[in-house]
Design goal:
The chain is mainly β and 131 residues long. 7% of the residues lie in helices and 50% in strands. The chain has one helix and eleven strands, in the order βββββββββαββ. The longest helix is centred in the C-terminal third of the chain and has 9 residues, at 103-111.
Length: 131
Amino acid sequence: EVQLVESGGGLVQAGGSVRLSCAASGLNFEDNTIGWFRQVPGKEREAVALIYPKDGRTYNTDSVKGRFTISSDNAKNTVYLQMNGLSPNDTAVYYCAADWGPFLVTRGLAMGVSAGDMDYWGKGTQLTVSA
């Protein structure tokens, strides 16, 4: 059974930093594209950042470039999202997701990625950024 367990959310002030973690199990970690999506009430779940752990290639949505960094610790089967320069607009539930293969990083760089592209999901962690 594939499990993706997020941690690290909470309440932070604008301008602050947070690191989210996603511990993955039940899948071949390095052969999956693993990433972060976020969702606010009334809006679609949107891709934030993806990584293909086998070669380290990443994709970041435009709104987080220069502020958020995705990385992986392949020995721990864990993906991280370091978030700096947070603003209230970053308030959302952040979900970890996975999809087999390297394709979504390439697709993301070309045309973006949607939630429907992912096979597996965690339960999410709430991040609230106060003004």
